[in-house]
Amino acid sequence: MLLGYDIGSSAIKAALLDPDTGNTVASARAPSDHEMSMDAPRPGWAEQPPARWWRHMQAATDALRSRPDADLQAVQAIGITYQMHGLVLVDENHEALRPAIIWADSRAVDIGREAFGALGTDWCLRHLLNSPGNFTAAKLAWVQRNEPDVYDRVHKAMLPGDYLALRLTGTVRTTPSGLSEGTLWDVQRQGLAVDRSTTSTSTRASGRLPSRPFPSRAPSPPPPPQPWACRAAFPWPTGRATSPTTRFR
Questions:
Q1: Is the pTM here over 0.85, yes or no?
Q2: What are phi and psi of 17, to 5 degrees?
Q3: In the chain, what are the domains?
Q4: Which of 92, 101, 195, 208 lies at a CB distance of 3.0 to 4.6 Å from 155, suitable for a disulfide?
């Protein structure tokens, strides 16, 4: 069995799939009867506490577990899709430092425009395949400029799906495609674009951010399973369902 999660801004959806037939065995969403709330403390802002996603992810899993045909102990791998362009900041204990700045937030538009001019159109389109725009790198720059007390405590800057994978496994990892959608991946060098792109958006100008604030890529092949990580973080039945979480790494 394969277990998939879709981390949206209105709901968390979960589905159990039979890989042999391609059929959906069971599915669930949380909240089940309304949309997940989105906070807008100021005009143009959009935030969600990462703990809200985690709580509804647990609820969706519990709903799956209650279905008669859903055998979660048969799960062999887990996949996560998620809302793009969000920013989750965690400290050294992997605790969220502030609500996530999500895709619908427009506070960093001017910072992205400034970075586009500083880096140059040609460099951005060749190396980032996009303008910095209002994507994750620009949102991180906004935090550096406007919330320096939070910025000083940043251990890792993460995307929404990476954060939930962290909660499942206890390990911080990401992917080139994830970094690319945040304008943090240099497709020419096939490496992080942080050294150049985020300097222009002032995220490293002060020198306060750790030199590698973004999660490293998942290694290949994956490390040996660590079932304890899932049991400690997620109310999962014992058995085979504990080891697939290492596929996130």
A1: no
A2: -120, 145
A3: 2-248 (3.30.420.40)
A4: 92
